[in-house]
Amino acid sequence: MKARDKIPLELLLVALPATFQDVLEAINANHLGVVFFVDADRRLIGIFTDGDARRALLEGATLGDTITRDTEYVNKSPHYLPLGAKISDIWKLLEQGVRCIPLLDSDGRVTDFSTRDRIRQFMVLEPDIGEQEISNVLECVTSGWISSQGRFIGKFEEAFATYLGGGHTIAVANGTVALQLGLTALGIGAGDEVIVPDFTFGASINAIIHSGATPVLADVDKDNWTIDLAEMQRLLTPRTKAIMPVHIYGQPAHIDEIKAFADSNGLFIIEDCAEALGATYKNRRVGLDGDCGCFSFFANKSITTGEGGMVVFKDAEVAKRARVLRDHGMSPKKRYWHEYAGFNFRMTNMQAAIGVAQMDRIDELLDRKKMIFQTYDKLLSGVDSLSLLPSNDWSENACWLYTVILKGHAEGSRDTLIANLGYRGIDARPGFYPMHEMEPYREYGHGAYPVASYLSANSISLPSSFGLANEDIPHIIEIFLDELSAIAPNAALAGTSEQ
Known about the structure:
PyrdxlP-dep_Trfase_small; disordered C terminus; Aspartate Aminotransferase, domain 2; 16% strand; pyridoxal phosphate; alpha/beta; CBS domain; CBS-domain
């Protein structure tokens, strides 16, 4: 996010009457060359620019002069738009040379503004980078420790283990290689099968393929969207070596039942926790129940290092082997002596520097996301045409990306809704496509996947960024419900809830 995006609206508002000096100070403070004149209730009176100021000074105005709504220099017929204006309408004004557009609510109050660098648009997910993150990166740059050596890597690994409550943590380049390193360190490769849910992001199955093993796609449970326990039993073969449960959209899988199944069949568990940092299963933080847990720190995750990931192993010896594999398979005791045909999966010190600062405020970040999710739940809970994120008494969602299911709508309705929301400044995204429907993964399908297909076709994720203000969410939902009501439900599906 650009620094100017963070200019508070208050720096553009000047209540009349005001002195000429007050107005010039406001223009100087907001760096946009304009102020909005408002009354005591923030209703727009007019606009005053730096150009107006120069003209007034040239015509004899002084700093002590008082500006009122009747002052001749005030533009009393400014361009403005309603708060819910379409992005196309905003751009139309900007292309006409209007540099700063006030956005008004239904009572004429200035509620937000748009410029070329600050369109009124709610992104689905954005990182929250603070001063300490920047300071840590600056330390790396000025000290020269910018690659995979430096003090922040060990510090980040230690902080992560402390947060989870244990485990042997290894920082890596991204969440996908976290999964691949976990598989390889556990000895899973050619000739082995790994059961993985069909409803997930492609990183899960890609890591299995690139480890040399064969993915076996399983349908998911309609009640919690994670791997179906009965499917695991159906897909078990003598070649099955591991299960990769995915805690999808922050919802934990039935990990105790998965562990029991794995133990009785001699299988490894590689937990895909990319979206589940902070989630709990029976009051245990997700990531320590399997043989390894794998996390992602991509820019859209709850904490970020830009790119980056973490593998958390249960067994110290496996973790030791993984550390060697991560660094080209080189022996830690003999330089440039390779013990394995390893990888370059290392995290940089700069990435870890950001991660350390993010871990320092992880509770603050997760609490903010939880508040956002609770507000969405409260405002959407009574909408009959929606199913909300899974909820149960044995787990707590990580509150990563707020996702709902459309009920009783025709095929394609979800995509139409997403497009229409985009026109009105709401960045929404579809759910993950089922793996078995895509060309690279079709060979790994085994039968039908009705639940994964249903969830994929009808899921929509709404803006869930840390920076959402409390008043933003009702505005988003107002637009969302307005656009949802414009999409006619399919009469034949009117009573449909879930497959």
